[in-house]
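Suppose you are handed a protein chain with no further information: no name, no annotation, nothing but its sequence. What can you learn? This example shows the usual starting point.
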Amino acid sequence: MRTRVVIEVLEGWLKVSVGRKVAVAPLANLEPGSISSALNLILKQNKCGKDLEVSVVLSRNKITVRRVDLPSQDPAEIEQMLGLYLIRQIPYHKEEVSWAYQNLGFDGVSNSHLILAVALKNVFKNIVSSFVPVNILPESILMSSQGLVHYVVDACRNKIALPGSYMILDIDVNYSDLVLVHNHKLGSSVVIPQGAEQLKELPEKEKFAAEFKQALVALNNEIPEARCERLFLTGAASSHLGFVESISAKDFNLKAQYLSSKEYDNFLACGFGGVSLSAILGFSAQAAKDDLKFILPEIQIKKDMKFKLQQLMILGVGLIYILIMLGGGALVRLVQQQSYAADLKNRVVSLGKDAKGLEDIISKLKIARQYTDVKSSALTYLNGLNRLCPDNIVITNYNWELGKAFTIRGYAQAIPDILDFTNTLGNSETFKGAQNRYTRRRKLKDNDVVDFEIFVK
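A reasonable first move is to predict its three-dimensional structure. Written in structure tokens, the prediction is:
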């Protein structure tokens, strides 16, 4: 069974979840060498093998999130519209960014509600490069806000009945993420620039309070029908529960509650109280197929090459084995087949002399069949056509060959007459399946007529 590894790189910290076990390591910088060294140490300490299912979590403060409504339900058309939206709304060139979206559903009238996430490709560069020395290829790049939703669902399972709409406030080292969950899906997300380190100072705490209020107002305005009454706190928010609750309850009527888990409690006992692991724990617990996933061309190409290489190796070994098995038998049977083929040729030559008379008989039988078989006889078709053809239809030509379609050509004064004639033929047993192939107007003397062609399979 593959071991699930979830990795998140934050300024100053590397967060890793191996299965359900979490670990963090301080980072001197965000250079690939520093990240790969710390990651390699954590993987060795957890005795990880080579069969890993690796996911990378991109922190919310490195992503621009927009809620978009588009008048379409077709995925291909939606992607084209989002490409145009990026050009107009994002202050970067399209080639400089990587983007992903999640379809939140159709409103039943005209629009599909989407959540769009955009990140600069430079953000991925150091992270992806750091995995090369460790020989790891990430299978998906996810957004941390979505991991918070999974974390809350997992923490509340069999304990708290989650409402359809609620808020999540996750406080990390140097930023906070306020998430709105609507209809049990990530509805939107807002970054608050103050984290656990900044909340240690009173001026920054006041700035946090102002930013928090603005974020709540912004989210409520984005989805007015959500009407949240619960605010779940995660990460480093445990020591700020009273402070946050005083703001949310007084001005927004939100009941605040801190959520933890066994894995998180064990981690906090090690003394890393200011680091949030909610996102990676959430993705370790579960991940949905429709989660936001960033796709980088470099990673996709490497994955395709690795997969094709595996297929070629399996195919090559299989082909060699089959060729060896078949080669021996083929050599043994080759002489027998040649001898048998020569014998067959001699028999064909001798039988061919007696077959000329049979061919003449078969030819005569084919001609006779045209007149003896009632269903396929030309006389049957002519008799049926004579009975069913109305006075307003003029038949100029018909073509019939045994085993092929029966074709009728003619003209009429109006197209409805032709359609009625076609339906009449199609409803009969003889001309069942009759179809009108074409109609074309032309002048016949001084009158307008409509040529037609009807064929019967």
